[in-house]
Amino acid sequence: MADIQALKERFISLYGADSAFPLRVFHAPGRVNLIGEHTDYNGGYVFPAALTFGTTMLVRERSDGQVGLASTNFPLRKQISISSVAFDTEDGWTNYPKGIIRELQLRGVSVPGCDILYSGAIPNGSGLSSSASIEVVTAFALLTLAGQTPDKIEVALLSQKAENEFMGVQCGIMDQFAVAMGKKEHAILLMCDTLEYKHVPFRSGEYRLVIGNTNKQRGLVDSKYNERRAQCEQAVSDLRAKFPELRLLGQLTRDQFNGAKHAIADDTVRRRAQHVVEEIDRVLQSMKVLEQGDLAAFGQLMNGSHDSLRDLYEVTGVELDTMVDAARRVPGVLGSRMTGAGFGGCTVSLVHRDAVERFIDEVGRVYRAKTGLTADFYVCDIGDGVQELTTA
Ligand code: ADP
Ligand code: MG
Known about the structure:
The chain is an alpha+beta fold. The protein has a domain at about 5-200: Ribosomal Protein S5, domain 2, CATH 3.30.230. It has eleven helices and 13 strands. The chain has helices at about 5-15, 95-105, 130-145, 150-165, 175-180, 220-240, 255-260, 265-290, 295-310, 320-330, 355-370; strands at about 25-35, 45, 50-60, 65-70, 80, 115-120, 185-190, 195-200, 205-215, 335-340, 345-350, 375-380, 385-390. A hairpin with a 5-residue loop joins strand 7 and strand 8. Helix 8 (about 265-290) packs antiparallel against helix 9 and helix 10 runs antiparallel to helix 11 (about 355-370). The chain is globular and about 70 Å long. The site of adenosine-5'-diphosphate (ADP) has 17 residues, from strand 6 and helix 3.
């Protein structure tokens, strides 16, 4: 968590101490998907969790209809008028809060003028969703300033809409949902198209989540992602010979799929579908074993997920595989897998707290030796979703 007192001093030095309005502090976390990869667009579950670090937002109303935007993470500052909020490439990061203001206005919320200072502890662009974090904290804070008690699911939905429409990024709902609805020591079982969800206890005890960033540039992600989606659609179309009503792979149990998979003509397409059906099953098993407090069993499911993403879905690559292999060799590691779309990005591992130092040292060394890249590591616990921290 950021040093709030230091941030308040920074805020005052930027915007002055003299105001009739209180300075309020809000926070939204980053997130990690623990298991359930490439399931969302197949009507299956994902299993994200909010982290204990995220984006802190200090905000103070002002009465002249202006909005001051500053961040400790970027030098760019802006002052805009609340009555003319528009996207501009030159405005860099400030487009994120502008997108939220615009979306709130489109929904009829009367957003007051205000001064804002953000401070983010999430590395940008590495898959821990700093963008969802800044969006959700902004939406939640501005709704609160407008006198509302924000509904967190609405906050997630409007933040996603702003990212889709104002920023032009076609993301799903998982990130914003996890960041808004996270709960300390719980993962979230979430069905992205219906928003059916459940908080599942994640009693990590003596274990920590360690996220490893491969720092690999992800060049091919979009085209490969589209190819995988098309292969899943092909699998559904072939399987309709057996299940005429089938719309999404997520509608099939593992047994139903195994009984019908020969209807899929292409071998590669069949392997893609096998991953999806088994991954959804692994998510449901994860919920069960975690409800029983069996972290070791969850670690095994994490391993199974990665192996399937490597062998059946083929979205890992040498960097992620190297990092995961090295992680599993460290004593005290219950499981390790890639997280996110793949081809780079991050891994997540469940590591005994006494082994964390050795983990970072050994995995970092092996990874550098084999890939020539330097990894970053973040040791995390599962934290709460968006909230107001204090009033001052
Ligand atoms: P990711 O969501 O994976 O971290 P994105 O590229 O989607 O990566 O979002 C990162 C962008 O979000 C940053 O480049 C910046 O524009 C904006 N952003 C995130 N956190 C902050 C922050 N604390 N201050 C200012 N801008 C931020
Ligand atoms: Mg993002």
